[in-house]
Design the sequence.
């Protein structure tokens, strides 16, 4: 079956039109789609960016689930905000977890990760945490976009929220086919109506007010180790993000735990953000030195720890803990195997009918490279 | 005139044979050579690495001047040294300045930079500092390889030596056409004989002894802000380098003064070296934290300074000071102009018949990028 034959969506509109593509552009795109399956659902997804279609876009049965758009960032608030906005903006919290889109397809509520994969663990979790069926009865053509946060999840490790295991926070409701968002206040009311927890709203500001208000918001979030803010026009159409030093340095610490696996560009961008923030926040010499020290620690400490771990003969990997019914944990492990990941189990025990599993995703390059350099391999650079 | 026609060197051997290349490989190489001229000397040089011929190789008249080879590096001494060496090695200081090869061609002593350009300032300087004519009377087919160190030079800024203006330190004497080195002790005697100052020799060691001895040497150099060590077999054929934290962090501070002009790989490699050194030197928690703090300062402080400078409306650039006879300074400025560099003069005054010039080489990307981000330009990454 080719996608061109699958052809028509509910509205009778060809898929390529729904995606805003010519028939030819859609055919070109098809080469970059990956086939996948979740239970009875066969789907194709776009795991990386293409010109005009968002990363993570999914074609499932007759339905298109748009990828979540990449949100632009400013490096300075005081010029970035007025450059980007001329009308009132909502300032909400940007959460540190993983991005998920929830949609109901052929009667089943499914949770898609950023790259467009149905995650069995997340699908189970959102079904059990949220009144998803009532929500989709009312909003059948929407996707509910949010962040999964908390320490017990298979993808991220931030533990700065008052969440014991895992929780969902909505930050968008979008037309699943076109990607157009509900206006901010309508979205917040819709979530409120169905008891769906949301990212915090810090306020609605004129751009000039936001320039004054946001630095203090960012500093407060930073002091709690939280990630940052999302600013957007009230129609939800234009967005801008800005992150705390805690987020920048947390990312750097993660990257330098696996220095040969994480991009140099990834690290460089975060270093640059620290420089601009230090200048914009008008730090004293002592404050700047403190930031520098903490920045240095976020690079050297995890890197040296990883080198020492590998030197001692162990292998390093990304450790995560998840808690769910045994069948859900099984499905998650099977899902990772299908994706080609190698998982090592560090701990596995039953807790009140659930299974509490701590596992490591194996990474390759850092283990191999560090091993080689510790063995005296020379560098020709 | 094509190089193939220039054809024969003194020995009557075709150029491609001297370079160890087939006629075809030599023709391919010719496409990567740049034409240049110094006074009456026309020459061609290879400014970047090619497969089998060293970067910086020069074809001048009938003569080949080999590029100085890239020296491999180890990230840990205790495995790197025995991996690389099975016989006695000389351990000498690796100096922080700029690499220069001095050769006599058609009766003129010329100084070539790493990339193979005749630098008029350096040519003048080595002629006035060293007994070059006596040296080349005795060693006509050799090139004298060394580091130009000291605060007053047009390329580097390290000021960790007891040198007021500029000085030369020999670290190699090589056959200029074949690149083969004199044995270490012969080279040191030859320099001694002609009063040519040399890189310090810390000792000659069996590999196992060197593993024990080198960490203390590196620590001493580090405490003085010096760069590192070069280890080599006594025949000079096999070399290995290792650098201090001061050198790694100094390079990072330089790179983050111009963060958008200097490679991310350049920075990443130096961060990695710090991680391995911290582990190999078995640092206490407090020592590692100190290294981390100093590392963080080497990144953030120069970057924030540059952003603030650009924010204030100034342009940043690489500042250097040189001191020489007025005609030599003129020749240097003319040389930079020919290379397409834009030079801003910060200070220019006569001192005891010499001209003392402080200038800045303009850099573009960091100025432009920082300006744009300060103006609120958004980042889509």
Sequence:
């Amino acid at each position: 079956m080719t996608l061109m034959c699958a052809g028509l969506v509910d509205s009778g509109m060809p898929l390529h039109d729904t995606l805003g593509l010519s028939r030819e552009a859609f055919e070109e795109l098809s080469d970059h789609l990956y086939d996948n399956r979740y239970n009875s659902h066969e789907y194709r997804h776009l795991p990386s960016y293409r010109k005009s279609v968002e990363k993570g876009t999914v074609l499932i049965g007759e339905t298109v689930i748009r990828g979540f758009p990449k949100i632009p960032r400013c490096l300075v608030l005081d010029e970035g905000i007025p450059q980007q906005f001329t009308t009132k903006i909502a300032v909400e919290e940007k959460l540190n977890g993983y991005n998920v889109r929830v949609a109901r397809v052929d009667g089943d509520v499914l949770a898609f990760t950023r790259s467009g994969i149905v995650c069995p663990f997340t699908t189970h979790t959102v079904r059990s945490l949220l009144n998803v069926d009532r929500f989709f009865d009312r909003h059948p053509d929407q996707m509910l976009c949010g962040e999964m946060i908390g320490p017990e999840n298979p993808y991220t490790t931030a533990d700065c929220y008052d969440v014991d295991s895992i929780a969902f926070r909505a930050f968008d409701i979008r037309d699943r086919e076109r990607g157009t968002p509900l206006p901010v206040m309508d979205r917040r009311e819709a979530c409120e109506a169905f008891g769906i927890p949301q990212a915090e709203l810090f306020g609605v500001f004129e751009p000039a007010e936001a320039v004054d208000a946001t630095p203090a918001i960012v500093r407060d979030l930073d002091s709690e180790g939280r990630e940052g803010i999302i600013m957007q026009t009230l129609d939800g159409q234009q967005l801008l993000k800005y992150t705390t030093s805690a987020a920048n340095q947390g990312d750097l610490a993660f990257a330098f735990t696996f220095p040969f696996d994480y991009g140099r560009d990834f690290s460089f961008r975060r270093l640059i953000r620290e420089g601009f923030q230090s200048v914009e926040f008008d730090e004293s010499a002592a404050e700047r030195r403190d930031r520098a020290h903490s920045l240095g620690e976020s690079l050297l400490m995890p890197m040296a720890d990883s080198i020492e771990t590998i030197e001692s003969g162990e292998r390093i990997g990304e450790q995560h803990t998840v808690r769910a019914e045994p069948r859900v944990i099984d499905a998650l492990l099977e899902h990772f195997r299908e994706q080609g990941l190698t998982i090592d189990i560090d701990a596995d025990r039953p807790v009140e009918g659930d299974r509490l599993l701590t596992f490591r995703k194996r990474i390759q390059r850092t283990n191999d490279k560090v091993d080689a350099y510790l063995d005296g391999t020379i560098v020709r650079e």
Q: What stands out?
A: The first strand of chain B starts at residue 34 and ends at 38. DSSP finds 13 helices and 17 strands in chain B.
